[in-house]
Amino acid sequence: MGTDPIFSRIVKMGSVPIFLLAAAFAPAQRVTSLLDRYLQGDHAAAVAPLATASNVTSIARDLVADAGAWAAKGATPEEVQRRRVAAAALALEFTVLRMEDEWYTLRPLIEWGCTLLRGGVPAEKPVEPVTEPSDAELAWHRAALAAIQGARDQQFARRPVISADRPDVPFSTDHVAHVAARF
């Protein structure tokens, strides 16, 4: 992805100080500290704790719960969208980073990120786009589709996915189709 600050490079755990790993999920800090680091361009520090975290489900829940309000702190509509892109990118990196051991737990974050980028948060009814598609959103979708292909999960790409938290509400109805319609 070149020098695009929204997407970071693959993180090598040996290059991250241990105190960053411990501090990232201390009780006083939340996932918003990782979002702040990611937005500031410190991708390695934001992503590294996610590689070995044992509380994957709670991190995903915190991300979903906190990222909307975190993004809304932007001073302008452009800054809000920039924060949405950063939150969706961190969620996507988390999902890809843990693809081997937590794909089925984290794959709903892809649909959540898609909804966030369109200007909403996952809800029972479809979200109408409140922003025009951007180059950053298109890049995110390309990376998300590559992740889905890398996981060899065509069921996720083409059929509804059920969230463990809300089994009565599908996360998506044909992810590929609504991405195609958006672009």
Verbal overview:
- The chain has helices at residues 18-23, 31-39, 43-52, 56-72, 77-97, 99-106, 108-117, 135-150, 154-158, 175-182.
- The chain has 10 helices and no strands.
- The protein has 183 residues and is mainly alpha-helical.
- Helices cover 60% and strands 0% of the residues.
- α4 (56-72) packs antiparallel against α5 (77-97).
- Mean pLDDT is 77; it is low at 1-28 and 122-127.
Brief summary of the model shown:
The chain is mainly alpha-helical. The protein has helices at residues 18-23, 31-39, 43-52, 56-72, 77-97, 99-106, 108-117, 135-150, 154-158, 175-182.
- Can you give the helix content as a percent range? 55-70%
Biggest beta sheet attributes: none
Question: What class do helices, strands and sheet pairing give?
Answer: mainly alpha
Order of helices and strands: HHHHHHHHHH
The percentage of residues in β strands lies in under 5%
**Number of helical regions:** 10
Gyration radius (Cα, Å) is 15 Å
Average pLDDT reading: 77
Give me the count of strands: 0
Distance between the termini: 20 Å
Shape by Cα distribution: globular
Flag low-confidence runs: 1-28, 122-127
- The quaternary state of the protein chains shown equals single chain
